[in-house]
Amino acid sequence: MFMLSLSVLTYDSLPFIHFSVYRPVAMFPLFLASILLLFEKFRFGKGDFFLIGFCVYSVCHSLVICMGYGSMGASMKHIFTLMIGLGMYRVALYIGQLCKEDPKIRRMMAISLWIAFLPPIAIGCLQLVDSFIVKSGFSMSITGLFSEKVYLRRIQLLSGEPSWAAIHVLSGGLIMSYLIRLGYRSLRIPLVLSVLLMVLSFSAYAYSVILIALIFYIVLTSKNRGRMLLILGGTVAFVAVFIPFLIDYLHISGYFAKRFQFDFQAMLKTDNSVFVRFVFPLIGVYEFLRHPVFGLGGGYYFYEFNAILFEKFSYGLKFKEVYDIAYVMPDSATSRNLFAKVLSEEGIVGFMLFIGFLSTAVKGSSPYAKFALALCFSLVMNFDSYSFVNFWLLIGFIRGGFFNEMPAAREAGTETLSTKGMKQIA
């Protein structure tokens, strides 16, 4: 089940599945695997005490709060997604521990990643040709088979948004790069191609995630800080100088190209996505300041959303997405930031439990694991779902020791994924 979920990691917005905007296919086999795992003799580790405490607190808190709000549906949805997230974490933790001992599982993971990234790379190449050469929109009909929302002249792979495609490339790419280090060199092909497509998607979200991850990594580790600061400076220069030059050289236009003019005040008033990604988490902080100890209750971020939006950010109502959330679907408002979500809904009590869990992943971790954790922190700066597959996948691998250094003998015995093996799979 886990390998199946890894094989469909890049599908997050299939047009024939309607239950949420973000609807990753990988969630279903992962959740089924978590149920099957109940029949195995597998228990949480000591560091998971904080996570279990957070889940118990959040569920009980939400159920108590819903009696006062009279909105049981929001509480049930919150509990359901939280339990799915917990289940996905257990599976990733279990697999992460097994990978340390069994090279066959690592080989199966390498095969699954090939299967996961080959179709989006193929579609991404078509989107690349369509965006910069043909410019006819021919790739939209093909992309529409895999994604409900299709962008004109954008590289979005098989995802509902270019930013979601970047999430899969960054998280899946990190796992691939580590497997390459262990000897699975054929993964260099999907890694290089997917990263190249991500760069050419000109997704401001993707670039910001990398920059924030580097900052978090510098904070988390004390080794090679000088080198990492140089890498961070080079990455900033790449985004601030080379990307705008490339956009101008290729004569790329559109709302996403204007973001690289770096006029934040203008973007906040003219760009719907920038407004939502910045203001919605900020509203969560305002809610936390109003209810600092226990928060609004799990699933009830929306409860005071409109009041704060109308009072402080009413200019955003000109955006259709914001207007629809405020007037048509007020209970659909989300913070777009997991940390802001936890603060606003669970207060300082829940936030400390959640941060306590994440902090346990830092202790005794290898530099690779610390960068994976930094990437997790960065990914949820603009994502707030407890059923965030990529987040739990990386956290589980970190806690399970997947990214820790392998003994030399074990590493030497790692099998290489050969072309012959790929032919047998086909």
Description:
There is one protein chain. With 426 residues, this protein is mostly helical. Helices cover 67% and strands 0% of the residues. Helix 5 packs parallel to helix 8 and helix 12 crosses helix 13. It is globular and about 60 Å long. The chain starts with a helix and ends with a helix. The C terminus is likely disordered.
List keywords for this structure.
426 residues, mainly alpha, 20 helices, globular, disordered C terminus, membrane, ligase activity, transmembrane, O-antigen ligase domain-containing protein, O-antigen_ligase-rel_domated
Fraction of helical residues: 55-70%
Tally of domains = 1
Intertermini distance: 20 Å
Question: Averaged pLDDT, please?
Answer: 87
Rg over CA atoms, rounded to whole Å, is: 21 Å
Shape: globular
Element-level helix/strand string: HHHHHHHHHHHHHHHHHHHH
Beta-strand share of residues: under 5%
Strand segment tally: 0
Number of helices: 20
Catalogue the unreliable spans: 407-426
Largest sheet: none
Structural class: mainly alpha
Keywords: Ligase, Membrane, Transmembrane, Transmembrane helix
InterPro entries: O-antigen_ligase-rel_domated (IPR007016)
Domain O-antigen ligase-related: 191-355
Subcellular location: Membrane
